[in-house]
């Protein structure tokens, strides 16, 4: 399968690239700074590097054309706007529809709510706190989910809680979960789940949480 990874040099994205290569996919790493691609990956014959900005619609279109799936691990980084994941996600979806790319897996966050989520006091408190300081991000994430839902794409939005370092593990739960403020998951585990979601139909049209 030929996949495009956006945010490929980020703290989750580099794990997505690593996992996709380990699973023998052809990987296009979409990055602003090619020199930041992990040296262990640069010489891999199954990796190609595409330089561009996720906010540049033409660059995004060129990157996704002919791909089988897109994995977006976009997030704020030095020099990028805080809402790059949302605006980039919208550009990705538009480009996918223009070039008939069927599947996208997007990294979201637990503060993005879904109708299937169970009621959680701690989750409500966290969402309220985030709304106070970054309400536009929460609203933008939920708007992106609605846009995905209304599209013809096979989409998955993965919503982890607090992300931490650590190895990839099979010891995790997914679904619409009642998480606490102490819930965490390793970035490597999230990345492996994202790649798996691109490979199977299990979570198409859903926004699962994931927690160790």
Give your account of this protein's structure.
- With 212 residues, the protein is of the alpha/beta class.
- It has 6 helices and 10 strands; from the N terminus they run βαβαβαβαβαββββαβ.
- The strands form 3 sheets. A 6-stranded parallel beta sheet has the order 3-2-1-4-5-6, with helices on both faces. A two-stranded parallel sheet has the order 7-9. A two-stranded antiparallel ribbon has the order 8-10.
- The protein has helices at 13-22, 39-42, 57-64, 84-99, 121-150, 187-199, and strands at 2-6, 26-31, 47-51, 69-72, 103-107, 154-158, 162-164, 173-175, 184-186, 209-211.
- The chain is globular, with a radius of gyration of 16 Å.
Salient structural properties:
38% helix; six-stranded parallel sheet; 212 residues; two-stranded parallel sheet; 6 helices; 10 strands; alpha/beta
Q: Could you give a quick summary of the protein structure above?
A:
The protein has 212 residues and is α/β, with parallel strands linked by helices.
Set out the fold topology.
Blueprint: E1 2-6, H1 13-22, E2 26-31, H2 39-42, E3 47-51, H3 57-64, E4 69-72, H4 84-99, E5 103-107, H5 121-150, E6 154-158, E7 162-164, E8 173-175, E9 184-186, H6 187-199, E10 209-211
Helix pairs in contact: 1-6, 3-4, 4-5
Overall, the morphology is globular
Output the structural class: alpha/beta
Report on the biggest sheet: 6 strands, parallel
Classify the helix fraction into a percent range: 25-40%
Quaternary organisation of the protein chains? single chain
Low-confidence stretches: 128-135
Give the SSE order as H and E letters. Answer: EHEHEHEHEHEEEEHE
Our count of helices gives 6
Q: What is the distance, rounded to the nearest whole angstrom, between the alpha carbons of the first and last residues?
A: 28 Å
Mean pLDDT: 90
